[in-house]
Q: What sequence folds into this?
DNA sequence: CAGAAAAAGTGCGTGCACGCAAGTTTGCGT
DNA sequence: ACGCAAACTTGCGTGCACGCACTTTTTCTG
């Protein structure tokens, strides 16, 4: 029940942060406002988030880590590790595009928010490590960590490029082509890691018998 | 000449930061002290570094990015990409251990400094991208970026684990084995990425003819 | 060589992150 | 049901990062 309450205030805080940012623009939101809107003290806000940007972005990226991990775990056992990971990520990063269309617009508009959004990639690292370790049979958690970290790094790269090009296409007024959809960009960015993922899977199989 | 002066003040700042941190302990160093010791205004210090930890750590990690890139480029052309990258990194992360032995002790002692030190890994990403792209023949800069980011992420993991275990071995008073030397740890952490590096190299070769 | 343009340094003000030391709530054992 | 211990919240104080406007220095150009 303690956990429930913590999660509740966390969501209240990030929801308030996003709402206020949408209403007034990101630069006209003081920390005190967010805290007040969520019904906690400013100091408490700071126990949950260490920057306004983090709070705002968390409203969009909240449970991505857990969702990605679940998606990886749910792929059928007979598809390769690389395919499982890549498709799980593509799914999870494309599906939630709907809920906050204007939120994404807000994020792309502000460099600080863009950076915070891209940095949330680090949050998928630990859940993804567990998911990969599960598929590899828990023989070598070390390898799983490395692969998860690499995948996270690649996703960070893809998101960065995507935000960059979409932002550019705004300012350039359409002269710049959006450079491909996010799913395509993700697939292309993750492709070079596929050999490493599949090699690890083969080695795990070999080790198991 | 402009660049020279910038680099000079940058080094003056980080050197002063490290010296003061060693003299008084990291928590007894104010930003104003660093600025004064380097002969610039506090505001200027802030144009170079956005945290004390960054300034201190930069004294140790300064040119690592460029050195790693050069080391990768200097490996003979007939060794595989994976071997070239891994050995270059191992070299560059082991050689500079001598200059600041006490500096590393200082860093391991403070969590904030540990984090800053580990985060410097990101700085090798761009130089390493260029080095890898050079070896791949510049056909696909995108792949080079992904690989460099993954390598950087793996190095970050290795450094994190290394600092963690060495710090633990301090507090535990020797009960915990240092868990292997840094070179071994780096090799073990980078190993899972070797298939990806070599696969990219093969593909580059195939594309070239 | 003068004078403009660009770039780096500086002073100031604001909002913030975070340590610390209370106070308050929650959950558990008896 | 009671009370205690651990976890969470809060107020306060300090140092800091960073935007902005301005001065000083460096570089470029006619």
A:
């Amino acid at each position: 029940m303690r956990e429930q309450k913590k999660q509740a205030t966390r969501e209240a805080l990030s929801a308030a942060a996003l709402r206020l940012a949408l209403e007034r623009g990101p630069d006209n939101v003081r920390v005190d406002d967010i805290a007040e809107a969520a019904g906690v003290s400013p100091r408490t806000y700071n126990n949950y988030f260490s920057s306004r940007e983090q709070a705002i972005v968390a409203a969009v990226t909240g449970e991505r880590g857990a969702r990605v991990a679940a998606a990886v775990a749910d792929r059928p056992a007979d598809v390769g590790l690389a395919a499982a990971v890549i498709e799980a990520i593509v799914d999870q990063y494309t599906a939630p595009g709907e809920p906050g269309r204007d939120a994404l617009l807000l994020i792309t508009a502000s460099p600080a928010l863009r950076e915070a959004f891209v940095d949330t990639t680090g949050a998928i690292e630990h859940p993804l490590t567990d998911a990969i370790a599960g598929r590899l049979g828990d023989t070598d958690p070390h390898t799983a960590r490395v692969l998860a970290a690499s995948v996270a790094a690649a996703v960070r790269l893809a998101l960065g490029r995507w935000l960059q090009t979409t932002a550019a296409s705004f300012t350039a007024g359409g002269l710049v082509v959006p450079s491909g959809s996010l799913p395509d960009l993700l697939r292309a960015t993750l492709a070079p890691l596929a050999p490493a993922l599949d090699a690890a899977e083969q080695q795990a199989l070999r080790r198991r018998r």
